[in-house]
């Protein structure tokens, strides 16, 4: 009976570890766009190009009709990030792979 309790406790601990890893990956994924946003002067097109080069799907919220080359970036906001966490093979360590990441760029 004691052995069953130990196995059950180990399963609970394993599940909690997986949940904690997933939450940590989600938090890091949401923090990434702020770090990825280029800083300093530049036009909106440069910022958008840099984010796309880093693998982001960029959604542009453009106020006015100024061309992107002359527009300025007002904000870079995180969008949804899709990731997958698995071991690949039974017994391997868990690895998180980012499948898709989106960022919103507000320009005017």
Walkthrough of the structure:
The protein has 108 residues and is an alpha+beta fold. It has one domain (2-107). The chain contains 2 helices and 3 strands. β2 and β3 (95-107) form a beta hairpin. The chain is elongated and about 55 Å long. The relative contact order is 0.21.
Query: What is the element string, with H for helices and E for strands?
Result: HHEEE
Helix percent band: 40-55%
- Widest sheet: strand order? 1-3-2
Structural class: alpha+beta
The backbone outline, from C-alpha atoms, is elongated
Please sum up the structure shown.
With 108 residues, the chain is α+β, with helices and mostly antiparallel strands.
Q: Which features would summarize this protein structure in a list?
A:
108 residues; alpha+beta; three-stranded mixed beta sheet; 2 helices; 31% strand
Blueprint of the fold:
Layout: H1 2-36, H2 44-53, E1 57-62, E2 73-86, E3 95-107
Parallel strand pairs: 1-3
Antiparallel strand pairs: 2-3
């Amino acid at each position: 009976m004691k052995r069953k309790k130990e196995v059950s406790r180990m399963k609970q601990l394993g599940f909690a570890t997986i949940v904690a890893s997933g939450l940590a990956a989600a938090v890091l994924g949401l923090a990434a766009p702020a770090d990825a946003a280029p800083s300093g002067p530049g036009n909106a097109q440069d910022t958008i190009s840099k984010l796309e080069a880093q693998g982001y799907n960029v959604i542009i919220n453009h106020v006015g009709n100024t061309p992107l080359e002359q527009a300025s970036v007002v904000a870079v906001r995180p969008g949804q990030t899709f990731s997958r966490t698995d071991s690949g093979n039974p017994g391997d360590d868990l690895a998180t792979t980012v499948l898709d990441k989106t960022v919103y760029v507000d320009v005017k």
